[in-house]
Amino acid sequence: IVSQTIRNASIFDPKVPARILRMFFHDCFVRGCDASILLDSTPENKAEKDGPPNISVRAFYVIDDAKAKLEKACPHTVSCADIVAMAARNVVTITGGPNWNVLKGRKDGRVSKASDTANLPAPFLNASQLIQTFATRGLDIKDLVALSGGHTLGFSHCSSFVARVHNFSTIHETDPSMSTEFASLLKNKCPSLNNNGDNAGQVLDTTAAQFDNDYYKQVIAGKGVFGTDQAMYNDQRTRPIIESFAKDQNLFFREFAASMIKLGNVGVNEVGEVRLNCRRAN
């Protein structure tokens, strides 16, 4: 049921796969994989989905749709957290990436706070900060590099990278680790520091609808969109892993699947509930 829902939604809107994959990552990184990212804000509580890094997380309707169909087929059985985990696997598989077995049995959390989204890795962290952020979730350096490969799908708004091409530092207008032709391309996409319109931005690799290892090749060529992409390439701890994934797509696929299973086990809630509506606690 989940995979059919995902497939149909992705045909209708090709941005769905990237959005679902990001939703899973943002859910698991904050309070564990407990579907807390799906809860709507209430007058008393500003929820995770309204925290700054999550304003651009979309496609919640796809999860709602899958949940409604599952409630008809087998009521009160499948948690929203499990649906998000399965959906993340399905979007990777239908875009040409690896398949893996999603462990089920997650329960849905009842707490969702916008302030917790400050724990999400920001696009300007350096390699040590990234490694540290992942370590607090029990994820190691290989997981960091493999999961970053999820950026093979999708698109970034200007706000996440514009500081790399305008006023980067007192010495350099643009980030010197970026290829010059790529820097001017990004400058044209985002002409000013502050106001670039909602739709301006840049795809994250040259095959944005295809799950492949092209992201790593772009990073090596100085065409990573985020500061974090280049930071990992410039660090001796992460660079060899990037190079190995760029050379060997099957290796990347195996490691990505293994890291997604680890990510899917972060802070799993076994005492929560199975929500009837993913947008609110029962």
UniProtKB/TrEMBL annotation:
<feature type="binding site">
    <location>
        <position position="34"/>
    </location>
    <ligand>
        <name>Ca(2+) 1</name>
    </ligand>
</feature>
<dbReference type="InterPro" id="IPR002016">
    <property type="entry name" value="Haem_peroxidase"/>
</dbReference>
<feature type="site" description="Transition state stabilizer">
    <location>
        <position position="22"/>
    </location>
</feature>
<dbReference type="GO" id="GO:0140825">
    <property type="term" value="F:lactoperoxidase activity"/>
</dbReference>
<dbReference type="Pfam" id="PF00141">
    <property type="entry name" value="peroxidase"/>
</dbReference>
<keyword id="KW-0575">Peroxidase</keyword>
<dbReference type="GO" id="GO:0006979">
    <property type="term" value="P:response to oxidative stress"/>
</dbReference>
<comment type="similarity">
    <text>Belongs to the peroxidase family. Ascorbate peroxidase subfamily.</text>
</comment>
<protein>
    <recommendedName>
        <fullName>Peroxidase</fullName>
        <ecNumber>1.11.1.7</ecNumber>
    </recommendedName>
</protein>
<feature type="binding site" description="axial binding residue">
    <location>
        <position position="151"/>
    </location>
    <ligand>
        <name>heme b</name>
    </ligand>
</feature>
<keyword id="KW-0560">Oxidoreductase</keyword>
<dbReference type="GO" id="GO:0042744">
    <property type="term" value="P:hydrogen peroxide catabolic process"/>
</dbReference>
<keyword id="KW-0325">Glycoprotein</keyword>
<keyword id="KW-0349">Heme</keyword>
<keyword id="KW-0106">Calcium</keyword>
<dbReference type="GO" id="GO:0005576">
    <property type="term" value="C:extracellular region"/>
</dbReference>
<feature type="binding site">
    <location>
        <position position="152"/>
    </location>
    <ligand>
        <name>Ca(2+) 2</name>
    </ligand>
</feature>
<keyword id="KW-0408">Iron</keyword>
<feature type="disulfide bond">
    <location>
        <begin position="80"/>
        <end position="278"/>
    </location>
</feature>
<dbReference type="GO" id="GO:0046872">
    <property type="term" value="F:metal ion binding"/>
</dbReference>
<keyword id="KW-0376">Hydrogen peroxide</keyword>
<dbReference type="GO" id="GO:0020037">
    <property type="term" value="F:heme binding"/>
</dbReference>
<feature type="binding site">
    <location>
        <position position="27"/>
    </location>
    <ligand>
        <name>Ca(2+) 1</name>
    </ligand>
</feature>
<feature type="binding site">
    <location>
        <position position="212"/>
    </location>
    <ligand>
        <name>Ca(2+) 2</name>
    </ligand>
</feature>
<feature type="binding site">
    <location>
        <position position="207"/>
    </location>
    <ligand>
        <name>Ca(2+) 2</name>
    </ligand>
</feature>
<feature type="disulfide bond">
    <location>
        <begin position="28"/>
        <end position="33"/>
    </location>
</feature>
<feature type="domain" description="Plant heme peroxidase family profile">
    <location>
        <begin position="1"/>
        <end position="282"/>
    </location>
</feature>
<feature type="binding site">
    <location>
        <position position="205"/>
    </location>
    <ligand>
        <name>Ca(2+) 2</name>
    </ligand>
</feature>
<keyword id="KW-0479">Metal-binding</keyword>
<feature type="active site" description="Proton acceptor">
    <location>
        <position position="26"/>
    </location>
</feature>
<comment type="function">
    <text>Removal of H(2)O(2), oxidation of toxic reductants, biosynthesis and degradation of lignin, suberization, auxin catabolism, response to environmental stresses such as wounding, pathogen attack and oxidative stress. These functions might be dependent on each isozyme/isoform in each plant tissue.</text>
</comment>
<comment type="similarity">
    <text>Belongs to the peroxidase family. Classical plant (class III) peroxidase subfamily.</text>
</comment>
<feature type="binding site">
    <location>
        <position position="48"/>
    </location>
    <ligand>
        <name>Ca(2+) 1</name>
    </ligand>
</feature>
<feature type="binding site">
    <location>
        <position position="121"/>
    </location>
    <ligand>
        <name>substrate</name>
    </ligand>
</feature>
<keyword id="KW-0964">Secreted</keyword>
<dbReference type="InterPro" id="IPR019793">
    <property type="entry name" value="Peroxidases_heam-ligand_BS"/>
</dbReference>
<dbReference type="InterPro" id="IPR033905">
    <property type="entry name" value="Secretory_peroxidase"/>
</dbReference>
<dbReference type="InterPro" id="IPR000823">
    <property type="entry name" value="Peroxidase_pln"/>
</dbReference>
<dbReference type="InterPro" id="IPR010255">
    <property type="entry name" value="Haem_peroxidase_sf"/>
</dbReference>
<feature type="binding site">
    <location>
        <position position="36"/>
    </location>
    <ligand>
        <name>Ca(2+) 1</name>
    </ligand>
</feature>
<feature type="disulfide bond">
    <location>
        <begin position="158"/>
        <end position="190"/>
    </location>
</feature>
<feature type="binding site">
    <location>
        <position position="32"/>
    </location>
    <ligand>
        <name>Ca(2+) 1</name>
    </ligand>
</feature>
